[in-house]
């Protein structure tokens, strides 16, 4: 559900990778707007440029051509430090392989982005505990990732992404490594955050069941958005 | 010197194993080759780190070779063709005997078919000589009288232009001088030399210099400055008609090979001496001196190997660490290899083949690098160590040593690779393919078995050690036992607690306030290495399981907000892989441990040098000796008529003297005699000396039978009372501490061993004896005035005064320049051959040389730091690869490049610093323990904080600088690229 304002805008976004002798045109002039509070699913076959689009929109990667505006600020004019700071304060990330830090326990993993964002240590600890509890993992706070199941790890990753109350959460195949029940549970968490906190979600997936949670589905093919559809809403 | 058989066999066997493996499984060889080519940079770092161990071995052997060469050459230089001597020598003093004994000796040897080709008598004297024409004199020129007719087989004197200089061709009243004497006297042909023979009743002899002989062969005898005379002329000049004091024998075989029959010749000469009842001794001087040179070679090699052993062990840890990391890196492909049918043995073979390239390359480069390192060490050794004039410091190595170092390096590296390969091959196929961590308890059985083995070994070590008083068993038994129990307990408890306890038990056992080590000369080196390794093991166990969590907690509790996330991450990773962290820590700790031990020795020396000087000098600034028999007539009158009494402390009482007799001493009821000096001290010396006592009798009876108590509440009065007691009863004597046990001047090999109350018999070598009871033992073993101190009357009344020397002791008033005073004393008493030494200066010179050599040793061992740096470099490079996705995630959640960089730098610094701190702390504590057990009596303990700080800073900065590059690369990885990365 969108509240109308544009949060992210991509104009003629191109991304070219030079991998040795091979030149891969991963994005080919993508035009896109994502509104505040919206949950957008990006779908398409493997290699169509979904993850590249997510990385470029979130500032993790740079475009070869074109522009991305976030909250009307052009990303390509931000320094690396400014982009990093923006990510720390306004963005959350969820990855297919969770990418939790194996040396930190669940609570510390969730706490880390808060500390990076400059939240006072005591407050960071309290907020991390609250978020971890909200994903149902309060009793696993002191467990390291290797001591958690795949679903639990992804819930910790969700908690980490949400801990900072970001304006936008980028999720790259958040359920790619999970079974269907666990996938549904994780997506339910994201859905609730989207609905409850009015947070914007951009979810890369090729699972139609996940796409069903979105307000809008962008279908990609060969580096281009070829279709925008509104799915049958889950729980609508 | 080095036997090549085993090294060559080992290398060939190794080569055969590798070739056999490669030929049997060419596909595995191809895999190994391609794996090597995949990461050339890492291979280069690894080889660099690995070669250090071999370089240390190679340089140790090469330094030994050079020292052996220097000192063996020195023996040939000094003795020329002479293999044995026959003399009556007491304390370095040659007593004369009848020349008529010489033909009897020659005939006796001929009758026994002794394989000799030369035998010649000599009359050797040392005396002051002045060359008025050259305006130069020297108090200690050797005058050697030789009989040309008996010099066959002993070589010739050769002039500078190559002519032979026969003594028979000398005109009357003429002499030859060697180049060394010519230099000392500024003498040229036709100069008239004045020879001052004798002290009390002095004879002046004038001789013309006929020619200068080369310092070579016979002309280089004992590396002395020599005036050569005809024997009869010498006998007549020095009141020794018909007497000689040395017979030199040359064996068949020439300069170097004659020594092979030295035992036989010595034995036969001894038989002739015994048959004739002469008080003479035949000595295989060349064989003995060569043995000494070879012992020096062994000692030097052993010292370098022992100190370098820690670097070698660090190098071996590096190998294991590198291969274990390589295995972690290739786990999925190894899993796939196993899945498609490769056996465990195939994986082991593949790693062995790969490792053999590391082993051979590192060993070859290391052996050659060791040559260079050895040359550098010898260069500085030549500059820093004051050697006797005439000793040439030239770099030399035996190629066999380099081959041995190569073989040792290659075999050790290969063995470590084999161990690592075996460990690596034991993987679970499914988990390996999916790159999943091993489950808890996977190694439980291995831990239990290892634990049981170590426990059994520990129990056996303790039992054996205490049953037969074998120190190594005692030292290693308890730590092995503790480690064995800890490994077993890790099956049921988190490893942190049993391992910490095992580490603490080890440290407590080694460093606790008990002393269970019995030092034996042949065990000292092994013990030092064992204790060092065990200490580092204990320290690492405690550190690796506790330091990171403690520091992390500290950071969480106290650090500034901005630095906290990076620091927290940095502190979390080392704990995640305790094996890897422990191995890396150990590399640093081992190196810094040895460097610190040497630094502590340096500091101990530095802190104790003033106390040492005070103890050695006994309060005297200058000691003077006459070079010939007797005492200087009217010494005090001449002295004070030339020099003001105010230049001496206490004026006239600041000058004392002692009548010195080189003697043979034995404990009563024991037959073995030792060369010892008897010091008959005058009243001035009794009153003014400051030598303190380690132990003394509580009371004596004086000459009248009256009891004299020596104990006093005032230590100074007690000390004085003991010295005065020598005058109250002439049957008492004081000895310096060298007579009670091994000291820094006399090794544990033997010597007089007495304590207060024991009786000793002093013999002058000519049948005169005196029995003395030991009254006291001085605080210190003395370097310059070592011996037995008695009242002057004891020497004068019981011995032939004409066979004694005189020593003079001077205490200078504040402000009197010691150097100037020495010059004045030697000038005034030149004709009596007075030679002086400034004890402070002599000790200072030796101290400076020792300090510099220790610094050199630290630098040498510091090279081992390369192992630690290479180890940490490889670990960091691996960590960057392993954590690439995590770096991406960190960048995604807001870590800036700087934070990523800092997290790596903090981690690197933490590991290096922890290793450095552990090594240094253990070095300091062990030094304190050794000090408290062995040196507390006479040395001052000091910790060289500044020096250690500098060493730690250099080590840390060098390490961080050398290993920062992977961290910098990590920080520059674009986040999206990092997240995409699949290893």
Can you give me a brief rundown of this structure?
Chain A is an alpha/beta fold and 236 residues long. Chain A is 34% helix and 28% strand.
Describe the structure.
The complex is a heterodimer of chains A (236) and B (983). With 236 residues, chain A is of the alpha/beta class. Chain A has helices at residues 50-58, 80-90, 106-116, 121-134, 150-162, 180-197, 208-211, and strands spanning 6-19, 22-35, 39-43, 65-70, 73-74, 91-94, 168-172, 200-204, 216-221, 224-229. Chain B has 983 residues and is an alpha+beta fold. Chain B folds into five domains: 1-79 and 294-438, no CATH class; 84-283, no CATH class; 442-559, no CATH class; 561-570 and 580-619 and 837-983, no CATH class; 627-833, no CATH class.
List the defining traits of the structure above:
heterodimer, A: 236 residues, alpha/beta, six-stranded mixed β-sheet, four-stranded antiparallel β-sheet, B: 983 residues, six-stranded mixed barrel, 30 helices, 24 strands, 15% strand, elongated
State the helix count of chain A. 7
Helix fraction of chain A? 25-40%
Rg over alpha carbons of chain A: 17 Å
Most extensive chain interface and residues per partner: A-B, 37 and 31 residues
Main β sheet profile of chain A: 6 strands, mixed
Q: On the 0-100 scale, what is the average pLDDT of chain B?
A: 86
Question: Poorly predicted ranges of chain B (pLDDT <50, ≥5 residues)?
Answer: none
Distance between the termini of chain B: 52 Å
**Helix percentage of chain B:** 55-70%
Q: Rg of chain B from C-alpha positions?
A: 35 Å
The number of helical runs of chain B is 30
Query: Gap between N and C termini of chain A, in Å?
Result: 10 Å
Give the count of structural domains of chain B. Answer: 5
- What sort of overall outline of chain A do the alpha carbons produce when their principal axes are compared? globular
